[in-house]
Amino acid sequence: MADLSTNIAGIKSPNPFWLASAPPTNSGYQVQRAFEAGWGGAVWKTLGDPILNVSSRFAAVSFNGQKVAGFNNIELITDRPLEVNLKEIYETKKKYPNHAIIASLMVEPKQEKWHEIVKKVEEVGVDGLELNFGCPHGMAERGMGAASGQVPALVEQQTYWVKEVAKTPVIVKLTPNITDITATAEAAVNGGADAISMINTINSLAGVDIETWNTIPHVGGKGAHGGYCGPAVKPIALNMVGECARNSRIGVPISGIGGISNWQDAVEFMLMGSTSVQVCTAAMHHGFRIVEDMIDGLNYYLDRKGIASVNEIIGKSVPKYSDWGDLDLNYQIVAHINNDVCINCNKCHIACEDTSHQCIDMLTGTDGKPYLQVREEDCVGCNLCSIVCPVDGAIDMVEKRNELPPMTWNERQEAIANISYVANSTAK
Amino acid sequence: MKSDRKETLATLKRNFEEVEPPFSKHDALDEANRCLYCYDAPCIQACPTGIDIPSFIKKIATDNLFGSAKTIMSANPVGASCARVCPTEELCEGACVLNHSTKPILIGNLQRYATDWAIKNEATLFHAGKPNGKKVAIIGSGPAGLSAARELARMGYKVTIYEAESEAGGLNTYGIVSFRLPQKISFWEVEQVKKLNVDIVTNTRVGVDISAKEILEQNDAVVLAIGMSSVPELGILGEDLNGVHDAIEFVKETKTAPIHDDLYKKKVAVIGAGNTAIDAATCSVRLGADNVKILYRRTLAEMTAYDFEYEFAKQDGVEFRWLTAPVEILGDEQGKVTGIKCVKMTLSEPGEDGRRRPVPLTDSEFTIEVDAVIKAIGQSRYIDLIEQFEISHDGGVVTIDSETFQTSNSKVFACGDCIFGKGQGEAMVVSAAQQGKASAISIHRSLLKETIETA
Question: Among this protein's residues, is A244 annotated catalytic?
């Protein structure tokens, strides 16, 4: 069995699986149940001045009958008194000294407010702090959460205030509701953040009831935007993690969040630079027990790969994540249809014919049977046919060797510039 | 002409290949993702071995097939066989909550998918425990014996299994028709147990090749997992004719000898309507018999075969003759079976076992023309062997403490078919596996207690 123990900026946990700050980590009862189930850490539901919540808070998006493809909520930070939370954090930490408890914090953007809460939570023995600069709904209207997190200067300033007094590592949780997340990530680092976590939820409206014309969810006939999470947001989160991981001006560990539902998702986030991962929606859908397969699956994956420690996979895909201008223009793949596997649904044909490059022909064999064939010379290797193909192994995307040396757009532009330069010099 | 026969034999051989096709990866993922992953799931309760079914299915969905197979095999050491032979609609699938809204998850097929992966990838799922210096002998290497051996070996016991046959696996190796359970599956399960340093001594019949006394003296505990014996006599005329078979032997032959064409285009009568009778009948069909009839002295309602077995036999074209009892097997001058004389029955008051007793109708005799008769009216018991161990039994059904599986000799535990009957136990492979596990735990408790007391 591989070593799954994790250390992110000094916060240690028996495995990289943490529960994200959210409804599952609202109380000591829940967090202790989670630790019993196997979770390595928990980010306590955001502490701050207790708020009032509305009734009707969650909504989910089903996709073709699959429940909870995406999840939307308008619940705010903790609605329990700070003292109660602090007492339960203390008790939970005492009972589970080897598990990580991180306090998520959100207060008004004032130095004294931050100093006060940091001291209070550190007194009860938390292993680290996570500053919630991401919550997109409700709190943002009061100048907190995402409202702070969208302004790099505010992120930097508040992180700095926290670092003035914090004795434990400080993680800054970033909002995805911003054009370039590396800007706020950099601001957090400039403020002294020991680590960053992402993504918080994305502004969303889960749906509209076409019969009643109410929003989904609605509170007595009225709705407001919520925060979107769950499997649907994973690609967005993964990109943001990757962008931060490959940015040399950031350079702090990342705790990855966003649609992580199983060990495979976790591996992807870790390969893309996350040191730990945080989960919420999957636990809300199935209960804390999902962590059993996460640990089990990750273990067997590492064993199969002959990797001794989970830390060895962190960031392994980051060097492969680059800019478009660095991609080889001469690398070529083409679709290959395996007619013995193909079930003749013709979905690849129509996808290619109507929406791509018109290179899959519907033909009839000498035996009178229909078959599909790719005209390789016209295929641009877009993958669309293999994406819409419903049968495993019916369409392979295969590399087509050519005589051309690798050449990226950037290299090409450089070469052209040199030629023009030489041409110009010669003309003179 | 000769090549015709060769072709026929080849066809007959193909008839014995596994009927149910395996799930493709696509099937498995679709079905696994359809599972609700219930909490405190009724399917787990319905499984005699308590496999954490939602968990192994979730692991299929996340492509953690090693973990999935391990979850299955931890709870059930013959989980690959059970994936194929369990009456799932009466157990896990019957309990699936989706029965109430759509259709149940095909748990058996998913279990097969995960265990097939482990077989194909030669996964080492378990390791022997640290040796604890204690020795246990297990008599019989069927599901119950293998299961007990696996658990004991994982706990560090030195286990020796004695097996009368030339191969281990018992019923799973010899008794379940190949087209449902290929022998290689049973052999893989045997291999899993062997890998834990369990000695399996085959071709050794306890009571003949080695005495019960010797085994009792040499071991700290003994597990009796001897199953049942041959089919008893019908007690009618003509039973020794050429063409009369014992169903157990008949099925065993299809698994151990080359497929023959002795029944090709012949007529066969099977006596009895339990699962073994169905096996004998469907094997006969697959051996090319023209007509196969099951003769049963009671009715469909009393039949002990599972519903899915009954359906399977009907699909195979097996005819059922209810309220029909044999009175004599008829033969020709060469001593070959030519027919079977039967009598029509009627059901009277319920007997001791609660089932209505069949009684013959007067003047209702009739003859059916057949070339072979297969007896499948239950199995006799290894009473001699049980008595050599000097343990209590009720007509060959070993008496046990239902909690501990301990027999009247506190050192001897019994499980599987040898404790089934007289209102005790269950006849399923999966129950035998569970009893084997439970016996192992009881042995561990009792020997541990001893250790503590002597310490």
Answer: no
CA-to-CA dists, residue B109 to B20, B57, B114, angstroms: 9, 11, 9
Q: Which residues 302-321 of A are in CB contact (within 8 Å) with B? A: 304
Q: Residue B449 and residue A76: Cα distance in Å, rounded?
A: 56
Residue range B135-229+381-454 forms a domain whose CATH class is alpha beta
Closest residue in A to B56 (Cα–Cα) = A293
Q: Which of B24, B25, B62 sits opposite A293 (nearest CB)?
A: B62
CATH architecture type of domain A324-399: 2-Layer Sandwich (3.30)
Question: What's the CA gap between A191 and B282, in Å, rounded?
Answer: 78
Structure tokens at B102: 């759509």
Task: Check if B25 contacts A (Cβ < 8 Å).
Answer: yes
Residue from the list B26, B33, B67 with its beta carbon closest to the beta carbon of A293: B67
Average pLDDT of the segment spanning B295-304:
94
Task: Give the CATH class of B244-375.
Answer: alpha beta
Residue A378 touches partner B, C-beta closer than 8 Å: no
Residue A188 in contact with residue A160, Cβ under 8 Å? Answer: no
What is the distance in angstroms between the CA of the first residue and the CA of the last residue of chain B?
77
Host H or E run for residue A88: helix A82-95
Residues of chain B contacting residue A296, judged by C-beta atoms under 8 Å apart: 59, 64, 67
CA nearest to A198, candidates A241, A158, A236: A241
Q: Which CATH number fits domain A6-320: 3.40.1180.10, 3.30.420.40, 3.20.20.70, 3.30.300.30?
A: 3.20.20.70
CB B383 within 8 A of CB B353: no
pLDDT per position as a tens digit, A61-74 = 999 888 999 999 99
Q: Which of A293, A302, A303, A345 to mutate to test the interface with B (most CBs of B within 10 A)?
A: A293
pLDDT tens track for B115-127: 999 999 999 999 9
Which CATH fold topology does B20-120 show?
A: Fumarate Reductase Iron-sulfur Protein; Chain B, domain 2 (1.10.1060)
The whole-angstrom separation of Cα A72 and Cα A57 is: 8
